[in-house]
Amino acid sequence: MKSIINQYRNNIRKIISNMTGSENDDIEQEVYIRAWKNLKTYKENGKFKSWITTITANLCRDYMKSSYFKHSQNNVTEDDELVQIKDTSENIESKLIKKQRQKRVIEAIDELKPKFREVIIMYEMKNMSYEEISEILKCPVGTVRSRLFNARRELSIKLEDLI
User: Fold this and answer.
1) CA proximity to 17, closest of 53, 60, 54, 59
2) Hey, how many other C-beta atoms are within 10 angstroms of the C-beta on 145?
3) Rounded Cα gap, residues 60 and 54, in angstroms
4) 86-137, pLDDT tens digit by residue?
5) CB neighbours of 111 closer than 8 A, spacing ≥ 6?
6) If I label 29, which of 55, 94, 100, 123 is the partner at 20 to 30 A Cα–Cα?
7) Residues whose CB falls within 8 Å of the CB of residue 138, separated by 6 or more in sequence, listed in order
């Protein structure tokens, strides 16, 4: 198991970081535990890297669906916004408007169907390629492009007044 961890650690960490937006040791540890527990069910007709990538992606999706993740993403108060504002050439009002716009965009992304949300986050925020997303989600590149198109279309409708 130690050789598996050493061989796939960087790939697992990259997937976790790309999907959740941060390094998460708990998810990484759970990947190794699940791989160890299910090693006897692994069929050697596929690539081991694909198998462990699927475990990682599924655990990340579960984490992103969890109430803990949603609560930590939405737990920004107006006081936090005011503390984060630095006094520069921009005035405070324009910074607050910018923050409110960002918050609306994030809320609109959160309202997307999960399959659209994960693609738009990976592509637009994590700067991942179609191929990388395709590998992580185990779907064709054409499906990634289609989901990205549909996610952008839905966002443009939801955020029409900001555009």
Assistant:
1) 60
2) 15
3) 10
4) 544 556 777 777 888 888 888 888 899 999 999 998 998 888 899 999 999 9
5) 158
6) 123
7) 50, 54, 57
